[in-house]
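User: My collaborator sent over this chain with a note saying "see what the structure looks like." That's all I know about it. Can you take a look?
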Amino acid sequence: MSQPDYKFEAEDVAGSPAPGEPAFLAVGKLRRPHGVKGEMLMEILTDFPERLRPGGVLFVEPNHDPLVLRSVRQHKDGLLVAFTGCETPETAGEYRNRLVTVKTVNRPTLPEGEYCHHQLVGLQVRTTSGQVVGRAIEILSTGAHDVLVARGETGPEILIPLVAPFLQEISLTDGVILVQLIPGMLPGEES
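Assistant: Without extra context I'll predict from the sequence alone. Here is the result:
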């Protein structure tokens, strides 16, 4: 399925995200200057790195300062990016170890059944038998699959793989993640 083309314009006005959604989403982390022309190595934190193109605008934390991409190219497992106005390693180095974001309103529409991590955090986690496990507090990205971290009112955190047969249903409208657990996953249960 082809995704619509998004271009981030410098004159974009900050849109209001839906209630509970962040205004900005991280797409990368700037690491270190590379070479002598103001490029920086950027760790990729998005599933859509192909949307980062010259002329696009990224916002650098902590103040969400807008920077226009001058160039973008693949480099090993990251990207080499350069911003307009950052022509030397010294000027690029001022952004070392900072997150770069896009506006939430500019994020691509996900296919049916796919969610951004921030949409799941805070939802109630319940078993198929109706037992409340707790609230989703974090999503861990592992090499194989994502893992939901749920915390109840008491007891340790519970790690639940976000794959079938564990994940049964996600309902953003009801605020619930329905899971099927195996014996021994909940504290105090014997396997």
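A starting point for your reply to your collaborator: The domain at 24-106 is CATH 2.40.30.60 (Elongation Factor Tu (Ef-tu); domain 3).
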